[in-house]
Fold:
Amino acid sequence: MVREAGDIRKVLKKREQRYSYGLTLLRDEMERKGWKPPADEEVGKKVVLRAEDIHLAFGGLKALRGVSIDVREGEILSIIGPNGAGKTCLLNVMSGFYRAQKGEVYFNGRRITKWPAYKIAEAGLCRTFQNLGLYTGLSVIDNVLAGRHPHIRYNSVLSGALYFPWASREEVRQRAIAEDIIDFLEMHAVRDHIVGTLPYGVRKRTELARALALEPRVLALDEPLAGMNLDEKEDIARFVLDIHEFLKIPIIIIEHDMGLVMDISDRVIVLDFGEKIAEGSPREIAQNPRVISAYLGEEGR
Structure:
């Protein structure tokens, strides 16, 4: 596959990997609830999320045709394919936004096929959206705090409404986690800005912050680089790598930027016309004739 000379791959090579301390409170909170980073022998082997024989149709249009994938502990998995291949549809099925006509989805050994989307998010399968799903009338910090909602414990609605001392302490604790995430994503300068007034790249970063606030056990990013310039792409790629290094969670990336996909992925799955046509390492995918044909056509091979 052909890449542009100035793609994200070359940018990443110029960057030294850095460790941000901005996710320390989030990781401590996850560990307090029993989460542990995967053991070395589990990384890339233990299946955390599995979709089996997924069929999805909208009337006569078949969006997915018997697609099966698994997501393994501690890996970065990219799902690629031409426009209309079914990538977002597959993610929507796994995260509960679509109901497949056939097939099953399992998350950490539990069948979640018919779970509502909010319950799947609470369980730890957290995602961003291709077209954004932010509260545009709220500030950045309020959007991130919205992601903390499933984890806030006031004991009762009345306690929160009357702002009893224990409710006040809980809000301070949750706000500290949200501020920690904002610091990690270097958004302190816009923390109080209304999201609807911000540039597109900053909104995408805000949505990533909200997904992190949900305490993901699996993080799914739907076209995180779409519509961004090279500097913004560099920042998001750096944050994705830092999240992976610090939390050790599986990350699913749906993306058209092949430079990013080939540079940071452990494994790549390719969809075309609703079917899985290839799966393997980035090197194997880049040399796969069916993948080249899907992107370039027979004459472009």
Q: What stands out?
A: DSSP finds twelve helices and ten strands in the chain. The CA atoms of residues 94 and 287 lie 29 Å apart. Residues 1-6, 8-19 have pLDDT under 50 and may be disordered. The beta strands are 47-58, 61-72, 76-80, 102-107, 110-111, 125-127, 218-222, 251-254, 267-272, 275-280.
